[in-house]
Design brief:
heterodimer; A: about 130 residues; about 85% helix; about 10% strand; B: about 150 residues; alpha+beta; two-stranded antiparallel sheet; two-stranded antiparallel ribbon; about 65% helix; rod-shaped; Prefoldin (chain B); Prefoldin subunit 5 (chain B)
Chain lengths: ~130, ~150
């Protein structure tokens, strides 16, 4: 009886740890996106300050390529849109994972109690 | 943050809290350090712009091709520079605009540092308080132990 519960407990703990891993992975991905968002926002601010005299170059590999300022602005705007979408996606993912992890924690505590009770019974029989 | 009376927490809880605060203060300290490094870079870049003035136009310079090799060149444009604005974009600006650009960046960083500093101080004070409570609890535990051992002897 106690052994069966212990096995179940172990597999549940493993599942829980998996979720925790996914959670922290998602968390760091979100942080990276946040950093990219800040950087792109700064670039957008700078590009918005430019007038027609300024020439914009884009670094492609080791080469600087002349680029139309409006095109650069459009690219950055598109990138911001994409990053915001990604952040939203990760936000939902995080919520979902947190919900799952809470559920697992509850299952774990009840299993632990069950296990302790079973152990107590086994000792009582001996 | 919810207000918790520190004295109501157990020693392991206090220990955990202290570790968490340690991590947070460390993170904030390194953040400030990084911001300061970047800020110095911008200040240096801004200072080096002062070399680009009319009296230096047409003068000979040595241009580094690698860290150990230089080729001679002449300074024929003292009015324009290329500035890295981030994510691979470079913009050709005149010197005055570039100085404004650096000033903006430096001010921005100063503001960020000013934002972090109070948070760091707050965490520091909180950590101090936690350590104090921990010491108090440990002393209490010690005196309890010594008094119980004397009573058991007697």
């Amino acid at each position: 009886m106690a052994e069966a519960i212990q096995k179940k407990l172990q597999s549940e703990v493993e599942k829980y740890q998996m979720i925790q891993k996914d959670l922290s992975k998602s968390m760091s991905a979100r942080q990276k996106l946040e950093a990219q968002l800040t950087e792109n926002n700064i670039v957008k601010e700078e590009l918005d300050l430019l007038d027609s005299q300024n020439i914009v170059y884009k670094l492609i590999g080791p080469v600087l390529v002349k680029q139309d300022p409006d095109e650069a602005k459009a690219t950055v705007a598109k990138r911001l849109e994409y990053i915001n979408g990604e952040i939203q996606r990760h936000e939902n993912l995080l919520k979902e994972l947190e919900r799952k992890s809470d559920q697992h924690r509850e299952v774990l505590t009840s299993l632990q109690q069950e296990y302790q009770r079973a152990q107590g019974l086994a000792v009582g029989k001996v | 943050m919810t207000a918790v009376n520190l004295t109501e927490l157990s020693l392991p809880q206090l220990e955990g809290l202290k570790n968490q605060l340690d991590q947070e203060t460390e993170f904030l300290t390194t953040s400030i350090g990084q911001l300061k490094v970047v800020q110095t870079k911008y200040v240096e870049a801004k200072d080096s712009l002062n070399v680009l003035n009319k009296s230096n136009e047409g003068k000979e310079v040595l241009v580094p091709l690698s860290s150990s090799m230089y080729v001679p060149g002449t300074l024929n444009d003292v009015n324009h520079v290329l500035v890295d604005v981030g994510t691979g974009y470079y913009v050709e600006k005149n010197v005055d605009d570039t100085k404004d650009f650096f000033k903006r960046k430096i001010d921005f960083l100063t503001k960020q540092i000013e934002k972090i500093q109070p948070a760091l101080q707050e965490k520091h004070a909180l950590k101090q308080a936690v350590v104090e409570v921990m010491n108090m609890k440990i002393q209490q535990l010690h005196s309890q132990q010594s008094s119980s051992s004397t009573t058991s002897k007697a």
